[in-house]
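Sequence, please.
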């Protein structure tokens, strides 16, 4: 294990690079937006420079955020997106768009062997309690008996993929023949209100909901078209939302009980 800031160059000998560095929760990537864009631009440049030098295969963890607030639904890989380049999400979504550009330019110019995956909303055990994304927020709130914070009217949608499914898709992409970009996500689409009600039912039917303002540029809908992942990687998710939530809730419950005692 080496602890290193990838905005600084590093020389290593490796066969494969899973380039996952970058906070993915809006709360965390907006905390230091300049550092977020440095990670996505300079960090990706350094990892591609490393891949070029040692002839390693390079996998970029890109994101459904490259589609912005999409006006095509569900989102296929060909869709070019609807992104605000000066908004509060742009350090992340424009950062990842540049990262994809760098990957394809290193491929065309230097023959670097690239894989680009577009990750949709993901959740599961071992997320931080202060992660700030919707699934962990709602679970922590319901377990603590505080109201679940729904942003806006809760009619916006997301499609949530269980982490083990995501990792399987990532490894198939890395070790397969297709460079992508390929969407990896669970097409099961829910409104945020439906998610709140599901978690409420599973943890505490008496839990209250409270409504907060919708953050700027919050995408109204999101659902992956996973035709490519199915056809090219033989991959599709196997764990539905209720099953995944059950395992995630168990994990949060035991960690929070351990903290209390
Ligand atoms: N780089 C790195 N590790 C390496 C090789 C390169 O961190 O093993 C960095 C390098 O310092 C540069 C970036 O990756 O900032 C891009 O490298 P490349 O060789 O493509 O460009 P150049 O160094 O020629 O500008
Ligand atoms: N959201 C919410 N309550 C929260 C956190 C998020 O209603 O406590 C909403 C948020 O506005 C967005 C959706 O849930 O519409 C997913 O937000 P998240 O931060 O998890 O991911 P992203 O917006 O990047 O998809």
């Amino acid at each position: 294990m080496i602890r290193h800031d990838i905005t600084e160059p590093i020389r290593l000998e490796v066969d494969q690079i899973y380039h996952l560095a970058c906070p993915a929760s809006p709360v965390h990537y907006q905390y230091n937006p300049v550092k977020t864009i440095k990670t996505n631009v300079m960090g990706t440049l350094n990892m591609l420079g490393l891949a070029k030098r040692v002839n390693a295969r390079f996998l970029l963890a890109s994101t459904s955020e490259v589609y912005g607030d999409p006006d095509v639904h569900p989102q296929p890989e060909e869709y070019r997106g609807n992104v605000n380049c000066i908004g509060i999400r742009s350090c992340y979504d424009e950062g990842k768009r540049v990262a994809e550009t760098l990957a394809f330019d290193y491929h065309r110019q230097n023959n670097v062997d690239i894989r680009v995956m577009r990750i949709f909303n993901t959740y599961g055990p071992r997320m931080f309690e202060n992660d700030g994304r919707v699934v962990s927020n709602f679970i922590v709130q319901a377990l603590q008996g505080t109201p679940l914070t729904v942003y806006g009217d809760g009619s916006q949608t997301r499609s949530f993929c269980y982490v083990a499914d995501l990792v399987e898709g990532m490894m198939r992409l890395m070790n397969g023949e297709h460079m992508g970009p390929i969407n990896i996500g669970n097409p099961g689409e829910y409104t945020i209100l439906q998610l709140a009600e599901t978690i409420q039912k599973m943890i505490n039917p008496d839990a209250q909901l409270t409504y907060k303002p919708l953050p700027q540029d919050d995408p109204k809908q999101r659902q992956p078209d996973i035709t490519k992942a199915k056809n090219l990687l033989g991959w599709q998710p196997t764990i539905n939302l209720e099953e995944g939530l059950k395992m995630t809730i168990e994990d949060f419950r035991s960690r929070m009980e351990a903290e209390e005692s």
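Helices lie at 26-29, 33-54, 90-110, 134-144, 163-175, 192-203, 227-233, 241-260.
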